[in-house]
Amino acid sequence: MSEQILPFYVVCDESYSMEPYIDSLNQGLTELHKAIGVDAIVADKTRFCLIGFSGTADVLLPLSDLSEVTELNGLTAKSATSYARAFELVRDVIDRDVAALKRDGNLVYRPAVFFLSDGQPTDDTPWEPAYRRLVDQTWKFHPNIIAFGIGDADPDTIRRIGTLKSFMSDEGISPGLALHEFARALTKSIVRSGTALGNENEVTLQLPEKIPGFTEIRVEAI
Amino acid sequence: MRELTSDAERWGDSGAFEPRTVGARLRAAEQPWRFPPSWGMSDTMLEAGRIGEVEVRAAATRGPSHRFYGEPRQDAVGVCPIGDRYLAVAVADGVGSAPKSGLGASTAVTEALRFLARALPDAPEAAGTLPGCFASAAEAVLYQGPEPAELSTTLTVAVLGLTPTTEGYAFHIAQLGDSPAYILSDGVFRHLFDASETAVHNAAVHSLPAHTQPDATVSGHLAAGEALVLATDGLGNPLGFTEVSEYLADAWRTPPGPIEFLYQLQFRRRTFDDDRSAVVLWATEAVEAL
Does B8 touch chain A (CB under 8 A)? Predict the structure, then answer.
């Protein structure tokens, strides 16, 4: 099969601090699955992978065509928050997935990573080397990253992770609502990108202009 | 919600008219077409004819994605004989994400051909005149409205001299953006412009009206039995796959009828749901006198 494909990787924090809100996120992901699974144009051209991380990182849904997925395994809260494990895993998975897609003769667009965290990393050693390997421009499959911080996440850290855009949830918004808006923004992005893919000659990854409950954080001019 | 109808309710041409599936099935192509919210661009434009020994087929047609979502066509093609010396043809692919980008494409094609029809009869030669049509097309796009970026479009234009030499018909092509051109010869589509593969597919291109000069030009001769093909990437991308190039090379070995040409252009292949456009010029083998 030779097709044109835009892969999405959703990398979600599932540390204990997420526990009270994880149902909102899972519900949002179920709605995403429903919305994309019935849209023939979008489901054909996008692939979706879900990775959860805490002290470890796991692939909860390998890269899939959502119209062929019957059930989406949700996230479950666990201990610790290792950014390094998350970045290492997503790099390995992208490297393997994109190589396999290309081996099958597909036209693959640059992968998109949606990274979501609600807290500070608890890594024993710095997470930056793993991050630098993920965004290394000499690695030909390096993804575009959109970073989302909610609750206690550190804006400076989140800002450093997004390569395309970074967002922080607004003060006062409940984390549950923020997670729901995150899932909606992700759905919109997949639908718009999948619709446009191969039909547009401009930037392939389409993001909603505004995400309710979130504010974009930009690199400040020095 | 754009729910899919069941297989029993498949919609569209059937039997001999049902476009060929080349590769995996494209489900969206079996769904009812939806009308754009306002009319202005027809679903399909088709041109065909014969000038001397040159057979011409040209079509721009809405892809399954725009039909499925009820969005207007964003591609355009044009064919214009200029006296009995030249044939000018153009393809354009509207790149703006706004629904109006088809207007940019059709404006660019119309103005580029209008420019050549004015300039070529008095020009000493075609190659030097050709690039001028890009600035003229850019200006026409700018006049279309307050937000010209929404009308951004690629443009590829070819001029074919209608007096053949021993090498064939001389042609000159200029390209702005990624709408490709090929020579179809001996069952193989040969790229006329650079089409190097990248690790991950890059979709960014130059376009009118921000750019007013072609990115590249190429000249050559079209020999008897060969065809010159201008396309948009809606055709160019799937044409990169062997199954597709073999299908069309065989279908276009000799000039098909106009409706047959349109049928062939609309082959189905999973994920390749963009608008499709092609202008094909066949230099037919002259019938030898007995």
Answer: no
Q: Which residues of B touch A203 (CB under 8 A)?
A: 203-204
User: What residues of B are in contact with residue A107 (Cβ under 8 Å)?
Assistant: 201, 237, 240
Residue A222, domain member (yes or no): no
Helices marked H in chain A — which ranges? 22-37, 40-45, 83-103, 128-135, 155-161, 175-196
Please give the residue range of the domain that contains residue A19. 4-216
- B144-192 pLDDT, tens digit per residue, is 887 888 899 999 999 999 999 999 999 999 999 999 999 999 999 999 9
| ipTM score for this prediction | 0.73
Contact B2 A199 (CB under 8 A): no
Q: How many domains does chain A divide into?
A: 1
Measure in Å the smallest separation between the Cα of A127 and chain B Cα atoms: 27
Q: Which pTM value belongs to this model?
A: 0.85
- CATH number of the domain enclosing A11: 3.40.50.410
B153, containing H or E segment: none
Task: With respect to residue A221, please indicate whether it lies within any of the assigned structural domains.
Answer: no
Per CB-CB distance under 8 Å, the chain B contacts of A197 are 271
Amino acid at B193: F
